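Please review this one:
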Amino acid sequence: MAIPGPYSGVSTLAFVARASAFAFGVVYGSVKLSYLQVKAKYHKKEEAKGHH
């Protein structure tokens, strides 16, 4: 019988931690993307006015 390594099975805690980290990353990414899109739109509007 082989000696089990440091990760020898599926831990519920590890699964929940990975799933919540993934979900947080998706939510954070979508919020950041929408913020950057609004910022880019604002800068385009300012450049069109000729303020820059």
Observations:
- Residues 25-52 form one domain.
- The first helix runs from residue 12 to 49.
- The chain has a mean pLDDT of 85.
